[in-house]
Amino acid sequence: MTKFDFEDGNGPVPAHQHSNGGGWVADTATVADTAFIGPDARVSGNAVVTYDAWVFGNAKVFDDAWVSDDARVYGNAWVSGNARVTGNAWISGNTRVTGNARVTGNTRVYGNARVTGNARVTGNARVTGNARVSGDAWVSDDAEVSDDVE
Fold it and tell me: What ranges do the domains of the chain cover?
């Protein structure tokens, strides 16, 4: 049995390298054959990556998070907790999408942005820089939140 340390405090756990990209996937996670997991990307816990989603760079998807459809998670981005990234959403840079947050549609979240709690980012929205979208906040349509706005 092959094991890999996802550096999440659980030590080495049963894992395998994904057939499409070579990134590490915990045996407890679910990743579709059609998804791309880049060689330095990680998917662990009970995370799910489906359809044509891509996780690459140093990105991590873990806990019970979902990434699906044509979504992209890359750079040093994390998707964790019960967060969902779907549609054509792109999460990049040092972004964190956590909690019960949802990022959907054609959204872009990048820089050092954080989307947490029950927040929703939808439509063609942009969350950039050091922006924080949290609690029950919604950012939708063509809205942009950037810099140090909280």
Answer: 12-145
For 98-124, how does the pLDDT look when each residue is reduced to its tens digit (9 = 90+)?
A: 999 999 999 999 999 999 999 999 999
Beta carbons of 96 and 117 less than 8 angstroms apart: no
Q: Is the pTM of this model over 0.85?
A: yes
pLDDT tens-digit readout, 67-81: 999 999 999 999 999
Identity (one letter) of the amino acid at 77?
A
Please tell me the distance from the alpha carbon of residue 20 to that of residue 43, in angstroms, as a whole number: 13
CATH superfamily of 12-145: Hexapeptide repeat proteins (2.160.10.10)
* Distance, CA of 48 to CA of 67 (rounded, Å): 6
The DSSP-derived string for 69-100 is TT-EE-TT-EE-TT-EE-TT-EE-TT-EE-TT
